[in-house]
Design goal:
eight-stranded mixed β-sheet, alpha/beta, Aspartate Aminotransferase, domain 2, 3 domains, about 500 residues, Aspartate Aminotransferase, domain 1, homodimer, 19 strands, about 40% helix
Chain lengths: ~500, ~500
């Protein structure tokens, strides 16, 4: 949201220009994005049109935007980097390249500095990772299997692991045979293979909005268009689903119904059934992300969509990354019917197979039963850390509102709309030594300016206290500058 | 090639039908392929048109082909499986699905039976795999790095491994900085990322013909069209390259100049320079596959294209799979300029990162210097096994001709064109307990009917003797049935 300060020494057109440049530099406005006509933006802002024209002109001079008569004004420049189109060595590039280049996530790397208490990542805490368990499993597997443990595996995956996964799905009410389980490089590859097998470039992907940032990465890389569906306390809404299907003719719907990333919500059983009913009526395949499903620490969630699915429309993707070892990169896709063989072929084209040793070690861990002890420990620790984060926020940033997740890794925080945006806050927060993920990262449409995602499990209780204290300090510092009385808001920006 | 036996008891139309059905079942003719008009095929075969009409009619009744007035006759059936288009649960499928379904490689699985001596795969022998070395490396890494070894890695890869790879490339004359090395899931993912980053569906990919079967998998999965360039004793020809570029406007050229898979040839230095010159003139990026380059056992190959490249047009893909541990799935892509960041983004969308533990273990092995000792052992063993295979072929299948590779894993064998095709031989060979890869697997255009690829390193000398004896027996058995005097050949089929 663009806020103008009419009391400021800075001319209005400079404020507009500065705001737009900031949005371009942070990736909120991407190369190829169209800016509103000067007259419309001037009307929205309640300023003279000349102010907007002047702002656009200076940005044009800087090469950040360009205008073509009759076609409008477009963003051409990507933050610091020169535009990809001028790459002198590799000729012209496919169309999807521009969109990929626009990436706010690169900013997150600033939070990886050692002096930053980082709540931004989607990873469990390092002290949760059972290094000894995996060491034992690898050594056992190498002794038992020898060279077979380091040779090629079939594209479908190591058969005993597929059986063990099918058995664990059975416990959760999902009837899936080992022949319907495809081992993948983490849940990310499971999602990407599902998109690749079912979609062509230009197709529409329905998704919750906000959604997992990695599915937006996939959409950009595969050239498919994400269309968002709002989320409330009961998870992704289903009331507008049918009209969206009729309007957009999507090829696939992506959703994480349980412990949704980033909001932490759980989709109600009623909505799950409603979603499945509508999908069945329209023969719309559903890509269900179950990666946080095991990570429950306050009550049990409803059955997964895959377990409730009677029409055979659900592809279930998950992994062991969030509850065990992200760096092992073992995920899977459970899918019935003839689609399975096609997925296996795409998998083979993509990387031949997931590493044999990692698969066999993961299987050994599952067989030993030690994973479930470990999971109980992780669940308990998450609950403790969630409480620590509630307490710290209440104390240090009471102006904000936040979710109360019953599982998963994330707290979804909403900042007051009359203070700094999450992206503005991020820069200041990193300077003060705390990192988080900005709301727009998770949106299909650049919304979420006042939201941020905190990983509750990445830091211990002391670090949480310290980190949230820094966050509160950063916000209060910026909010003080926002306290000018005469301001106007423009929903567009 | 379709050969008709006019002395046979079997009616001509039945012979035509049997041949077509065989080609459909083995995947040489894929669903969607168009059959020649009956009149044309009758002319080619020198038979009455009614014979072809009758053959087509019976195949139509069996559901293997279908005809639409004015559009021609098409293959509809895929071997044993029902056509994907009838999938009852997942709606209509994107166009590339049909092509993926056509896959002769599935037949190769027959060769994986334990009683079969298998020369078909692209993998080193199990006794080459240094299990102890990797066990030591993994244990060392887990002790040294703890949780960091099993957490997420950056999409670009573990920095010290990228540095070690850059250093090893430097030794081979390739000046590549660690920031230009992207770690991938084996060489296959390196190739796939290169194709994804530079090509859109419908684009043309130039490739040697024959070529690596995995690049044809990628072409199918990504919807790009491979156009082949012939290979002779000096590797891929460059004389027709310029006219192919002008005709097809390709986006990318894929080539493995050194120890080419499947022919084992080495592209001459002259041709390498010629290729680079033409590519530079047309700004055509080259995806170079260097995966066999270290596996030399009779002399040194010329410098890689990447080392000779002055125009910055070469993406160099390789891995440690062929000389070390295929199941670790560690490959890389060395690429200069701004393309690198785009590749890293596609990598992140595809699977976030290559497993941290595998990368760190591979780095430890490189640092220890033990990999190079191991490589010397593998090179020596390959030379011994190559000689064993030469001897066995001379003794058991003198009717064939074969390549004399100075490196790499493969012998490329040409069968006499008046005997069985490689695919016909495969079925009989597997029955007799020996497996190989059929020529058409490696061709962009279904050619290679009389070629087969043997892996020289997959079996020890005794198994080579026994396997080639079985192969000779299978060929001689089938060749006897081909000895009828009155036959005609049709180049089309």
């Amino acid at each position: 949201m663009l806020t103008l300060n009419r009391d400021s020494q800075e001319p209005i057109y400079q404020q507009i220009k500065r705001h737009l440049r900031h949005q371009i530099e942070t990736g909120i406005l991407a190369p190829g994005d169209r800016l509103p006509p000067t007259r419309d933006l001037a009307d929205q802002l309640g300023v003279a049109r000349i102010s907007v024209v002047a702002a656009y002109d200076e940005l044009k001079d800087e090469g950040a935007i360009s205008a073509t008569v009759g076609r409008g004004t477009y963003v051409t420049k990507l933050g610091d980097s020169p535009p990809l189109e001028t790459n002198p060595t590799l000729g012209s590039l496919p169309g999807s390249a521009r969109a990929q280049a626009s990436d706010l996530r690169d900013l997150l790397r600033l939070a990886a500095r050692p002096d930053v208490i980082d709540f931004s990542q989607g990873t469990p805490a390092e002290d949760f990772l059972p290094v000894d368990m995996i060491r034992d499993a690898i050594n056992m597997v190498l002794s038992r299997d020898g060279a077979a443990a380091v040779a090629y595996e079939s594209p479908e995956g190591y058969a005993p692991l597929r059986e063990a996964i099918a058995a664990s799905l059975h416990v959760r009410g999902i009837e899936s045979h080992a022949d319907e389980v495809l081992i993948t490089g983490g849940c990310q590859q499971a999602l990407d293979l599902g998109v690749q097998a079912l979609m062509n470039p230009g197709d529409v992907l329905l998704t919750s909005n906000p959604t997992y940032a990695g599915i937006l990465d996939i959409a950009r890389a595969r050239g498919v268009t994400p269309v968002g569906i709002s989320v409330d306390h009961d998870g992704m809404q289903t009331s507008t689903l049918e009209s969206l299907i009729i309007e957009h003719r999507p090829r696939l719907l992506y959703v994480a119904p349980t412990y949704h990333n980033p909001t932490g919500t759980v989709m109600s059983l009623h909505r799950r059934r409603h979603l499945l009913e509508i999908a069945a009526a329209h023969r719309l395949p559903i890509l269900e992300d179950g990666v946080y499903e095991s990570l429950s620490y306050a009550g049990s969630p409803p059955a997964s969509l895959k377990a409730l699915d009677e029409a055979g429309l659900v592809l279930y993707a998950s992994s062991f990354s969030k509850i065990f070892l992200p760096g092992m990169r073992i995920g899977y896709l459970a899918v019935s019917g003839r689609l399975y063989q096609r997925l296996a072929r795409v998998k083979r084209a993509a990387d031949v197979c997931t590493p044999a040793l990692n698969q066999r070690a993961m299987h050994a861990v599952l067989e030993s039963g030690r994973l479930w002890e470990h999971l109980a420990y992780v669940q308990k620790a998450c609950l403790i850390r969630r409480t620590a984060m509630f307490d710290a926020l209440t104390q240090r940033l009471p102006e904000a509102q936040w979710s109360e997740p019953s599982g998963g890794l994330y707290l979804w925080v909403e900042l007051p709309a009359d203070g700094p945006t999450a992206t503005e806050l991020f820069m200041e927060a990193v300077r003060m030594g705390v990192g988080f993920a900005m709301g727009p990262l998770f949106h299909t449409d650049g919304q979420g300016a006042y939201h941020l995602r905190l990983n509750i499990a990445a830091q211990d209780a002391d670090q949480i206290q310290e980190g949230i204290q820094r966050l509160g300090k950063a916000w209060h510092k910026l909010a003080a500058d926002y306290a000018a009385p005469d301001r106007e808001s423009v929903p567009f920006l």
